[in-house]
Every structure is written in structure tokens, then in C-alpha cells.
Amino acid sequence: MTDYFQKHVDLLDKALDACAQRYSWSAWPENPSSKIHGEEKPAAGKAAFESRLQADFPLDQPGTTGHLGAEVSPYTRKPLGVRYPATDVPALYDAIRKAQPAWAQASPQERVGVCLEILQRCGDNLFENAHATMHTSGQSYVMAFAGSGANALDRGLEALAYAHKAMADVPGEARWQRQFGRDGVADLHKQYRLMPRGVGVVICCATFPLWNAYPALCASLATGNPVVLKPHPSAILPVALVVRTCREVLADAGFDPNLVSLVADERDAPATMALLEQPETAIVDFTGSPAFGTWLENNLPGRLVYTETAGCNSVILESTDDLTATARAIAQSLCQASAQMCTSVQNIHVPADGVRVGGERVGVDAVSRALVEAVDFWLADPRRAATLCGTLFDDSVQATVDRYREKAAADATILRDSAAYSHEEFPGARTATPLIIAADPAHREWYRQEVFGPVSFVIANGSRADCLADATGNARECGAITSHVYTTDDGFMQQAIDAYHAAGASVACNLTGMPINFAAAYSDYHVTGLNPAGNACLADLAFVAQRFRIVQSKVMA
Amino acid sequence: MTDYFQKHVDLLDKALDACAQRYSWSAWPENPSSKIHGEEKPAAGKAAFESRLQADFPLDQPGTTGHLGAEVSPYTRKPLGVRYPATDVPALYDAIRKAQPAWAQASPQERVGVCLEILQRCGDNLFENAHATMHTSGQSYVMAFAGSGANALDRGLEALAYAHKAMADVPGEARWQRQFGRDGVADLHKQYRLMPRGVGVVICCATFPLWNAYPALCASLATGNPVVLKPHPSAILPVALVVRTCREVLADAGFDPNLVSLVADERDAPATMALLEQPETAIVDFTGSPAFGTWLENNLPGRLVYTETAGCNSVILESTDDLTATARAIAQSLCQASAQMCTSVQNIHVPADGVRVGGERVGVDAVSRALVEAVDFWLADPRRAATLCGTLFDDSVQATVDRYREKAAADATILRDSAAYSHEEFPGARTATPLIIAADPAHREWYRQEVFGPVSFVIANGSRADCLADATGNARECGAITSHVYTTDDGFMQQAIDAYHAAGASVACNLTGMPINFAAAYSDYHVTGLNPAGNACLADLAFVAQRFRIVQSKVMA
Questions:
Q1: What's the pLDDT tens digit per position in B137-176?
Q2: Is the ipTM of this structure higher than 0.95?
Q3: Interchain proximity B195–A514, CB inside 8 Å
Q4: Domain shared by B305 and B367, yes or no
Q5: Is residue B175 included in any domain, yes or no?
Q6: Is A126 among the domain residues?
Q7: Which residues pair with A261 in a beta bridge?
Q8: Mind spelling out the 3-state secondary structure of B117-149?
């Protein structure tokens, strides 16, 4: 039997160091270029994906009662035809119950080793995963390879490093000797054992199915808990591939593969409640809508619930030395993944009397024009547009865009209209460029919620202080995962940082020349847990420390 | 301004090392003897306590609307007459709100330093605290000095060490540099800031008011949260003394004393709900009844709730080489603090065909006699009886004893009756020796719950396997804080350890010659959180890691 912990210990050590120092590092390649990987691997990944289509997905799970699956590619608009096990949840849990004791009994190192091997094998399958992600979540190929590949795996490794650290904090044994009174001498041999909580259910989202799945999987599995992955009905395949890999690694390591399982569903027959009804379900990791996330947070007493939902991410554009660069940075966020990312910017706050650019004040209209031009800059080349925007994962996103276009036409001003861009490779792809609406505080009920998809608002607040009050108030009350400030005024920057922090939000200042949506594993604590956009952080000790408990024995020598 | 962190850094380092190695260590004296402390300190402590009686307790808190307090000494049976502030909770919270920002802004080291100074000053006040604890909780002087002194302070320092460790895991800043694509170069200066959750409310119990108060106080306060202590109405004074010390230290350190406050109440007008109704209350630490603990766990969604309640602690007496020593170890637990400790033994399981002692099998009746004799051994000397048993903190405990005596007289056998023992120093003290009832599984509804006070059961189960099944089933379903096994059979010992662990309970094997109730800070993880006797552990990373969150700023260079 391979000692997977020893095999990957350098990788783990590097991750631990990166978490401690929080520098830039990735354990996997972000670039799918054949210059790096050769021709064969990308082609093999594509072929592997294609071989999955119109077929039963090979996953031999207990409790299988039939097949289901209704994924439709946002690129081809055709059903993928992949058929996953339909699961009788109680029967599956019977099997999980049998798998549990040996896993709980395994040493933390053994379990961490298995998780490291899982991540590594998933890392060997990035090309197939990229195609699977494209044709479910609708991401572009490059984003699907990087964001749902290396970036997601890194978050998994990060969570695993924290789980390892938290478990390693508990020694295996101790000797304890002392005198009691005149006569009593105690000499105790103590052993400490880590105990899992129960089954961890991981509810994945449609647009970035693995970004939270890897961390939740690693955090729960490494600490001894079997894991059931419940993908979004639109994006099952990327999750199924991971589950398949997990089951292979577990079997190779001599464990019961039922320690990781898939419960897929379709929209009209969701499986989540059946999983929550199982008393063994002790941990729930959720990524998805604020409404269901809040419900989970409030209605599962005695269980651990980790949520990442959404908010209304803001930019305060107060001043800049380079309006073009700033506008492009913001515009890139409006375009990237068609603003279906949890880090996408939505609300751009601008003082009503304009933005200071160098020595001059540039009015709101001109700033808005600069933003629109910056969006058009990103979209000018159809290939770049496709790489940047990808597609809308579902018709409902287009419906949201249409709804806001109508509202804006009636009660506001459309600064930039949304339209499909033409996709070279997939002419039928469901695409939409950013809709940008000129708003002011009269429209606050429009922008004080997540508008999921490529809809954004340029909001003219009174003063920069009003911008800050509006943006941070919204972060506090409606949630925020990312917040941005552009300013050349150090005093205002500090004021903004303090105000966002007081609102329970993190903040980035003057980011240009890079994709501002980027949240770096090992460096950016993702989601503060202090505002309505989620209660958990990827990743910190709080994300892992509760997933196991400690029992001990003490024996008198 | 004194740098309290530097002043006490050696103490903290020692505590961190003790937690990591889990050896025996205490930072404070357990022995009140004047041979160690001289004559003056004990006398001064007693005088200080006496000066508190029949007087307003000096605590200048906002929101004070009058005075209250109805403590009665279990020794003298007389009201203490100490009058504490009656608090208008919203007005107090207004003041707390003002105190909060500067404390959140202080560095983790500064806050840890203040907590270390608080513990040290409380450690300088152990004699006054001992008298205060005696005359409220009813503990004996020795127990009040050690168990509510050093042992409790150690638990506080332990929790503080974990809080420090969890906070130190987050670096203050980082530099993050990477290339994006061909042109983009990002160079970010990141700063990470720890944010408190809100107000921590600490609900203390009657019999060991500080044992959980110090850990909860330190864990919440060090991580930036103001703390409100809500003592049991029978045992306010020990808590009030701590609050007074906290407020002094905070003021000396330049912080607002309202960061720690007392909300005392009387039985007929409890203040807890008013504290829970405050939206700022983000953390609740509770020690007390399983019923209210469970209610708190289930009804405060979105808040952190840490409970230590109670269970039906068991002993399995399977075999021993020394029945007298074993019986004395168990009997000491039945006597100690009149079995009002969370670690007191209640259910003594014995195989129906007897206990193997050396080569022989000793029948249940003879084992029961040995236990009764052992209790009588401990109680033979009135001074030792007083030191060991202390008093019943409240009439309700005597009522419980009486109720079980009646039940047993009707439907079981009384092995040893309870009676008052006579207390030399306080002839009117409310005392009771152990009531021991012969039971069998027909009485399981009697013993499958905490019977609070000196009531225990010798339970004749069928076989040793039946003993184990009964005891571990009760631990799983009804809770257990301590569990004991006495056996000379290594195989059975391992089986018992595994069975208790599987039930979510810790277990001690063959402890004799020491007080088996003793739970050692820095070494014994107290409460597993896996059975109904509580959801939190003193102390581990899970006890502290959620009490703060992380926000960050990143600024492009």
C-alpha cells in the first residue's frame, strides 16, 4: 500500500508554508496551453469528456435505483445525456455507516494522505474537468481550466493544510504525573483520539462547482467524516468526476469507496432535503443562493453549517491617476464569467460631482463612458470576449438581464446595453455582454441585492463619504464577498478600509493590471463570515476545527 | 502603561508548552496552607470576604437601576446581604457598544496581555475567592481554594493559550506578487485583521461558578469581544470579584472597563433572556442544566453557543487487584463536593455475577458493601468529611436526595442512606452524605439522567458486556462528562475504551490513589462535545477559532 502522506508530504509542507506566509503560489498549472502540456494531454482530456456524453456515468454506488441527469450545455444548448445514479438516500447512508468506522480509526496522517492523492489525481485530470465545466457551468475553456482547476484545487489543498494543522495540534498521547496530598501519586498514560462528527454533505453551486467542493471535501474527509457531494442539477459532471476519483483513491488505499459519494438530482426533484433529513448528516457545506444559505444557517441546530452565498459587491471610484487602467480593471470584472462569479463587481459608486483624475475632476457621465469603453475594449476581439465572458449557465440569467433592461428603460438610464456576443467555436452559445445601468440612491432596492449575471450599476452618490456609507451599509446588510476602492488619497483609503472592515467586509485598493475578481488560495481569506454573504471562510482554522472532536483515555500505570 | 503581554509572556509560553505536551502543571497554588502562604494572606482574604457582607458590592456599571442579590450561605444558612447592581440591559449594552471599537482595534497581543494580567490578579485573590465560593457554592474551603482557584484559573489560562495560538495563526501582513498573462504584474501588500463577533455572554453555574467562567471570559475577551458575566443567582460573589478585577485591569491598561460587566439576578427575575435578546450578543457560553443547555444550542441560530451541561457519569467495575483501593477511589467521587461536580460518578455498573478480585469472584452484595465501607472510611473523620463533601448548595439538592430515598425505599434497596454529617466550624451547614441505591436495569429511567447531588446507583447488569452496553448507551443518549473502567483484563479495557469512544465519551481506567473527579487543565480535554453533556471542549482550537473572524485589505503597490 502506498504511503500517500509520505508521497505528498513536500506538497503539504509547501501549502502549510504558503498559508503561513500567504505569498503567491499554486501547486497546479493555470495555463492550458499545449506549449506547456504538449498536444496529447489536452486532446485526451477532450476525448475523455466526449466519451462521457450520452452514456451512464460509471459510478458503482449502493442505493442506486435508476438514472437521472438533465444537464444542458450552455455552448451547444444540447443535453449532455450523461446519466448519473438516482439514489435511494437511506440505502446509501446504510453503506456509508458501514464505511465509517475504519475511516474514523485511520490516523489523521493516513486520511490527509488520501486527500492529497485525491487532489493530485484530480490535478492530473484538468483537461477533462475543463470541458466538463465548460459544458455545465458555461465557463470559458481557459477559466474552466484555471479557475475550476488549479485555483479550485489550491483552495482544496489550503483547507486540507488547515485540517492537518488543527489535527496536528492534538498530540496522540501524553504522560501525566503528579502528587495528590501526602500519599497519592498519579502516573497516567493518556491517549487522545480524534473523532469525526458524522456525514458531511457538500452542496455545490452551478457556476463554480468545485471551488468550494474541494475545500469542503478535504476539510470533512481529512477529519474523518464521510462526504456526500450534492451537485447543482446544471453542473453534475465536474463533481461526478471528482467523486469517481475519490472512490478510486479510497479503494486503492484500502478504504471503502462509499466514504465519498454523489447524490445527483434534477431541478424538479431536488435531493437536498433527503440528505438533511438523515440524522447522520452532521456537517453541511453550501454554496449557492443567499436565501437557501440563510435557511440552512437558521434551521439546522446542532449541525455545522458552512455557507458561501453572495452579496452586492461594490467598487468605490473616488480618484485615480489612470482612468483607463482603472476602468479596464473594473470592466474586466463586469465581463469575467459573465459576472456569475461570487467576486464579480456589481455596484460602482461614484461621487456625484465626479472622480478626480490626476488634477482634474471628471464627471459621472464621462466616468460612465470610460467604463463602457473599457467593457467594449475587452470585448472587441471575439476570441478574447469568449475567453473572458464564457456563457450564461442558464436561461434564468438571461431573464434577469432582460428584467433589469426593462426596469432601466422605464425608470433609469441604460449606459450600456447587453447583447449576445458571437462565439466562434459554438455559434449557438448562450452569451450576453454586460448591461450597465446608471443609478442613484433612488434605485437602491435594485442594487441592494445580488443581481446574478452581467448586470451592474454606476451609482452616483452625493459625496465620497456618501459612496462609502452606501457601499459599506450594503455590505453589512446585504452581504459582500469582494469590495474595491480606487483612490489616490491615502487618508480616504484608510477611511474606506476601516469602514469596510467595520461592515465585516474585506477590501482591495487600486487593483489594476490584473483580474480583480481573483481570490488567491493561501493568501486571500475568502468570505469574512461577518456579513450576509456567508458564514465561513476559505480557509482558516475556524473552517476545520469543529469538524472533529477529541476523546481521550487515561490509564493509570 | 505596562506591557502586560511582555510581563507575562513566560507564563503564556509555559501554558502553550503544557497544552502541546499535556503534562501536569499548574500556574497557581492549590494548597491554602499557611505553611506556604504565611498567616497574613489567608487572614486578609477572609477579612476581605467578610467586609463584602451586608454591603453594596463596589461595581460602578452603567445601566444600574438599583440593587439586588439573594445569596444565602449553605454554611451559615444566612443571607450574605451583598447587593449587586440591578442592570438595565439595553443601557448597559449602550455602554458596551462604546467600549467595543478600541478593544477590537487593540492588537491580539495587547488583549492577551490584559487577560494574562486579569488571571494573575485573580490568582492574587484566591483566599477571598475561596471564602466567597464556600458561602455561595457551598464548596469546602480546600476545594474552593483549589478547584475554584488554581484549577479554574488554569482552565482560563489554557483557553487563553488556545485563543493566542488561533490568533497567531493569522499573520498581520503579507506581500503577494505574481504575473497575470504576458503583461499583468500584481504586487499587493495585504493586511489581515482579526475582528470580534460581538458580545460574549457567559452564564455561570451555581456549584463551580468560575471553572467555565475563566475559560469563556478569556476566550471571548482575548479575541476582541466584550464579555457580560451572568452568574447563577446563588453564586454571584465569586463572579462579581472577577468582574471587578477585570474592570480594574482594563482601566489600568487604558481600556473602557465596560468591556467586562456583571449582570446579576435573583431566581424570580432571571436576566438571561434579556441578554439573549440583545442583537449584539453573538456568543453564549453556558454551564448548567442539560435542559437549558439544549434549548440554547437549538434556539440561537447564527450565534456561537458553547455548552457544558451534565450527564450520568458511569463506572464499570469489572475486575481489580485491590477492591479496597478501587472502592475508595469511587467512594471519594461519591463524596467529593457532595457529588455536585460535573465529573462526579453516579452509575456504578457491576456484572451480576460479581467482580473478579485477584483470582476470586466477589458478589455484587460484597462489592456494594465495599463501596459503602469506603464511603464511611472517607467520612469517619469529621474534618475530612467536611473537606471532602462541603455542603449542598441549595435545598433543592436535599429534596432530590429525599425523593430518591423514597423511591428506593419503595422500589429498590438502599445500600447506604444519606444523612447530614456534622460540620465542626458551621454546625448549621446544609450537609448530606452519599445515598447509594442498589439498582438493576429495571430502574434505568432513574439512572439515565443526571441526579444532581449525592445520589448514586450500584447497577447489577447481566454480564460485563451488558455493563458496557448500558453505560455507553447512557453516555451516548443521556450524556457523560467522565467515565471510568476498573479492570485487570487488558482486552476488556481496550474494548471498553473503544466502546466509550464510539459513544462520544472519554474514559479513565483503573484510577486509584487520586481524586478521580480531577480534570487537569492543559492535559484532559474536558467535555467531548459528542454526547448530550455539552457541545464544547475545554479547551481546544474549536473552543476559540470561531470567536473571531478575519478581514483583509490588499493594496496594489
A1: 999 999 999 999 999 999 999 999 999 999 999 999 999 9
A2: yes
A3: no
A4: no
A5: no
A6: yes
A7: A228
A8: HHHHHHHCCHHHHHHHHHHHHCCCHHHHHHHHH
Q: Same domain, yes or no, for A60 and A134?
A: yes
How close, in Å, is residue A144 to chain B by CA atoms? Answer: 16
Each residue's pLDDT tens digit, B323-360: 999 999 999 999 999 999 999 999 999 999 999 999 89
Q: How far is CA B405 from the centre of its chain?
A: 28
Specify the 3-state DSSP secondary structure of B328: helix
Find the CATH number of the domain harbouring A151.
Answer: 3.40.605.10
CATH number at residue B502: 3.40.309.10
- Alpha-carbon distance B23 to nearest alpha carbon in chain A (angstroms): 5
Distance CA B113, CA B347 (A): 43
Let me know if residue A557 belongs to a domain: no
Cβ contact A529:B504 at 8 Å: no
Q: State the Cα–Cα distance between residues B234 and B231, nearest whole angstrom.
A: 8
Containing structural domain, residue A63: 4-168+197-309+536-548
The residues in A 286-305 lying below 8 A from B, measured between CB atoms, are 297-299, 301-302
Measured between beta carbons, which residues in chain A are less than 8 angstroms from residue B492?
none
The shortest C-alpha distance from A405 to chain B (Å) reads 33
Pair (A271, A233) in one structural domain: yes
Q: How far apart are CA B140 and CA B318, in angstroms?
A: 32
What's the whole-model pTM score? 0.98
Within this chain, do residues A99 and A220 fall inside the same structural domain, yes or no? Answer: yes
State how far Cα A471 lies from the chain centre: 23
What is the amino acid identity at position A21? Q
Domain identity same for B366 and B474: yes
Does residue B193 fall inside a structural domain?
Answer: no
User: Do A170 and A22 meet the contact criterion of CB atoms below 8 Å apart?
Assistant: no
Q: Is A554 on the interface with B (CB under 8 A)?
A: yes
Whether residues B391 and B344 fall in one domain: yes
Each residue of A306-357: pLDDT tens digit?
999 999 999 999 999 999 999 999 999 999 999 999 999 999 999 999 999 9
**Tens of pLDDT along A26-54?**
999 999 999 999 999 999 999 999 999 99
* Mean pLDDT of all residues in B408-430: 96
Task: Say whether both A21 and A91 belong to one domain.
Answer: yes
Q: Residue A330 is placed in which grid cell?
A: 473594473
**Contacts with A303 (C-beta within 8 Å, 6 or more apart), sequence order:** A281, A282, A283, A284
Q: Report how many domains make up chain B.
A: 2
